Amino acid sequence: MNNDAFINQVMDGLKEQGYLMIPDDFIDQLIITLHANVTAINTLTELVKIENEMLVMRGLLPTGNRQVESLKGLSTRIAEIAFNVEDVRDEQR
Q1: Alpha carbon 22 to its chain's center
Q2: How far apart are alpha carbons 68 and 31 in whole angstroms?
Q3: Alpha helices in the chain (DSSP H)
Q4: 19 C-beta neighbours (distance < 10 Å), count
Q5: Which 8-state DSSP code applies to residue 22?
Q6: Burial (CB count <10 Å: 0-12, 13-18, 19+), residue 32
Q7: Rounded CA gap, 17 and 89, in Å?
Q8: What does the pLDDT look like over 30-61, one tens digit per residue?
């Protein structure tokens, strides 16, 4: 028996005993959803940048905006969570 087969057998046994409670399909869907959220937030960030540039041109908004930096930070944190979930999935398999 090679290492991969042994690891899969052990993992299947742990799943059957209830030690691994998170189904692989759920983890995969969570990762996809997290990455989709990052993409959506990045798109929103670009829209906010454009809106801010337009407002600055009209003199309605001082230069710089915390909203853009906040969205960038949120995107980064969600991406980090997604990569951590991927690591957990890889360890679980």
Answers
A1: 17
A2: 24
A3: 3-16, 24-57, 66-92
A4: 9
A5: S
A6: exposed
A7: 18
A8: 999 999 999 999 999 999 888 888 887 887 76
